[in-house]
Amino acid sequence: MPKLDLLQGTLDLLVLRTLVSMGPLHGYGIARRIEQLSGDEVLLNQGTIYAALVRLQNRGWIAAEWGASDNNRRAKYYSITRSGRKRLTEETSYWQRLSAVIGRVLAPSEGGPK
Amino acid sequence: MNVGVLWARLKGLARRRELDRELQDEIAAHLELAAAENLGRGIGPEEARRLAAVRFGSVASAKEGVWDERGLPGLASCLQDARYAVRGMRTNPGFTLVMVATLALGVGLCSVLFSVLNGFVLRPVPGVSDAGRLVTLQAPVPYPYFERYRDEKGLSAGMAAFIGPVPFGVAVNAGADGKTERVFGHIVSPDYFSTLGVTPLLGRFFDPALESPGAGATVVVSERFWRMRLHADPRVVGRALRVNGRQATIVGVGPKDFLGIFPSTPAEVFLPVTADPAVAPELADDILHRTTQPAFRVLVRLRPGMTMAATEARLDAHTRELDQQTAKRGPEQKGRQVHLLLAGQASPLSIPERSLVVTFYTLLVGLILSLTCSNLAGLVLARGSARFREIAIRLSIGASRFRVIRQLLTESLILAALGGVAGFAAAYGLLDLLARFRGDSALLQSEIAFTPDLRVALFAFLISALAGAGFGLLPALAATRADLASALKASMGTRPRRYRRFGLRNLFVVYQVAAAMMLILIMGFWSSGLRNAANLDPGFDPAPLQFFSLDPARDGLAPNQSAALFTGLAQRLARLPGVESVTLADQPPLNLTVANRSVSVPPVPSGSRESVHAVAFMSIGPGYFATLGAPLVRGAEFSERDLGLDAAPSNILPAVINQTAAKDLFGGADPLGRRIRQDAGDVQRTFQVTGVVRYDRQSLVVNRPVATIFLPLTRYDLRRGSQSGTIVLLRARTHLDGATVRRELASIDPNLTMFNPQTMREFLAAANRVVQSGIGFTSGVGLFGLLLACVGLAGVTAQAVERRHKEIGIRMALGARPPQVMRLVMREGSVMISAGAAFGFAGAYGISRVLAAASAQMAEIFGWSSGNRALTVGIPLLLVSLAAIACYLPARRSSSLDPLVALREE
């Protein structure tokens, strides 16, 4: 089992990001979109997305509504809320800072160990 | 987890089914959408579905992921544990029943003990605010002393003085013909209620401006009196009551449950200290201004931040100063003059007394609880062995140790909950029944509420949880410690020997014997000490005696009238048919009397030192000992001429002393004609011995002869009446019914009210009942300990033998004979039993010594009984033989074991 902590946080972030750019979307749509955007580099069990969706709903960052899908099936559509957007901004900047730091630390040093 | 998320999770829990259906739909939609997209790419329908399912991953784990986000974390698995536990209990109802019953007994008994403790020392005085900060002076002081304390700045956060409990003759109908009822009350300084922090339910409390001397008499009544005697009349303020024969206006009603500062002797009416002495004879003789009449109890509310010790030191300093100023005592007085007692509970206690009581009860509860726990743990262990394989299997297929322990703990906690509820219910029922039994609707003269309250419920809950954790955790740890391979492979009989000697099981047996021994011995000491106290010889034949009380002063008769009434009364009643003789006394024959007054004996060849002695006093009428049936050994008893003598200090009163007093005061010398002196505050009284009686009056608690001086009832006594009124004692051939006496009394004065009529047998029985209930209680606790010990020992030893079946089988197959096997099994058992018995005996002895050293009353109880051979030898013998039987039965079974069967088992 992969480390849940990191994966959880990341998946939540990706879901929020997807909903901002795509508008309301059902679970399958979100999973597909993430796969596409990541160039299929993230190996995602699509089923795990539903736990993330419940978690985000519980925190009030996304809202859900039943609607009709493209092929006229009933599907649950998720959309980002105002506090979700705020959260995304915070998380994004946090993520960027973190990855910058990690990148800096892990970068091969020019002069080698002194 | 923040509150919002918790709330969302809880909502998820509530809508579980609906959400599950939605999730199902959502996943189905997901798979269909995915399949449709795959179809669009030109993949065959079968393959499209398969690929969609592969990309989705496990549906079950997706659902589990969602469930983890919904509901409460861990709750589901806890419920699972609980369900599993309940299923296990259902399949083994006998075991469950024994466990729950044992627990119920333990928790019930502890709850009863705790309720008693709660009633005595923990429950704050009802109706009073912040009772923990209230203290009282141990000894009463003169009113001017109180005024001095009160006016001292920064000494306290409030101070009040009162006389009480004081009897009042109260008639609800203020008219002259109303029936008088004797109720108790306090005569209080105006700051009494404000110091206690109580506010009136109706009307007002006393106010120095309104209760000035000369204003009409006023009275405050308790809420209970108002409810039970005044029909909870909301317009009662301003109404008049007849108090001690005088009109008094009700100005206020106290708050609910408030019965004065010492609810063990409830106060129903409150009069101000400024009341006219005609209403309250206790206030006669200008007592408010006398510095030599220590009549007032002082209540102090401690100042915030000031300790009891500091307050006591300052009060002490003031008292010494006042003593000097009033020249009351010589400068040689050493030690503290003032001792403070905690006043916030049923009856006043000093801090060491309180901690002694609390420690004693804590010890008892601890013993019972640990005995219960070790018993249950033994049972669980016994079953645990049978479950070792189950647990080992669960561990081996991947259950974490934590999970298994949690499962076992859940089981024991469920059992604990069942037992706890049953035990508390039993305790509640029992105590409620007792309370009902004691007081129906009467205004009781003495009561302590033992009915369990929230505090007791909380306590029961806590100890049940503790017991559950206690008996569940240890076996759970032991069971999961088993290394898997050996537990799975081996049957139970061949567990490694190294566990045996100091194993948990053996410790349980030793502890169980020790704790049971301690509990039973302490209870035995206690109950036989009480029995000794109850088994008193009154020194006279109670059969022909009966008595009742009169208090004419409180029926509204003038002091002179009341004194005159008594002089003719005895002769008059003696003329009634069947009556042999009649006499008077200021208290019933046997009482809670202790020798607490000091007298001195002037030496006969003057010049040698005066000796000082502790004695008890009692005032009696003419012919008292003849009526009682206790003969005099020297001299004569009082005659008619001695009744109603002037009590002026210059008058030398005649005195009859009992043999104990004769021995204490005069040694071998002839006491007749000798003088005895008493220094009572500012007055010095002298008595001359005119008789010696064999009757060595004993008090109820301290079963020792009490040196007693009997004085004739003086005019002063007859005018005022004591707290129990004036006792009229009759010796009659046949029982005289109350109606006849009442008719006779009414012909003397229609206002005269007789109270507390009873036969001497009834009186002695009632006094004994208090002690008997104590004996019943202590014996009950002791028996319970015995029962627990037997059950536990039988369980544990039976199980220990069972575990060795295989070993025994091998031994017998190799030629061991049954007696040898018996010895083998018994040897192990007897070592443990002897060890436990020795520890227990030492413990009980030590504890009773410590308790005896800490309190005189305990010393009285334990001092006598710990020298009692029947107890110190009998109880250990009984327990050890019971334990031996518990050991013997399974041992015998094992020796008759068929080796083939034993070896083939499993």
Description of the structure:
The complex is a heterodimer of chains A (114) and B (906). Chain A is of the alpha+beta class and 114 residues long. Chain A contains four helices and three strands; from the N terminus they run H-E-H-H-E-E-H. Chain A has helices at residues 4-22, 27-37, 48-58, 82-106; strands at 25-26, 62-68, 74-80. In chain A, strands 1-3-2 form a three-stranded antiparallel beta sheet. In chain A, strand 2 (62-68) and strand 3 form a beta hairpin. In chain A, helix 1 packs across helix 2 (27-37), helix 1 (4-22) packs across helix 3 and helix 1 (4-22) crosses helix 4. The termini of chain A are far apart. The model of chain A is unreliable at 1-6 (pLDDT under 50). Chain B has 906 residues and is an alpha+beta fold. In chain B, strands 13, 14, 15, 16, 17, 18 and 19 form a seven-stranded mixed beta sheet that branches. A six-stranded mixed barrel of chain B has the order 2-3-8-5-7-6. In chain B, strands 12-20-11-21 form a four-stranded antiparallel beta sheet. In chain B, a hairpin with a 2-residue loop joins strand 6 and strand 7 (246-253). In chain B, helix 2 packs across helix 3, helix 15 packs antiparallel against helix 21 (760-803) and helix 15 crosses helix 23 (818-854). The chains are: A alpha+beta (114), B alpha+beta (906). Chains A and B meet through helix 2, helix 3 and strand 3 of A and helix 1, helix 2 and helix 4 of B.
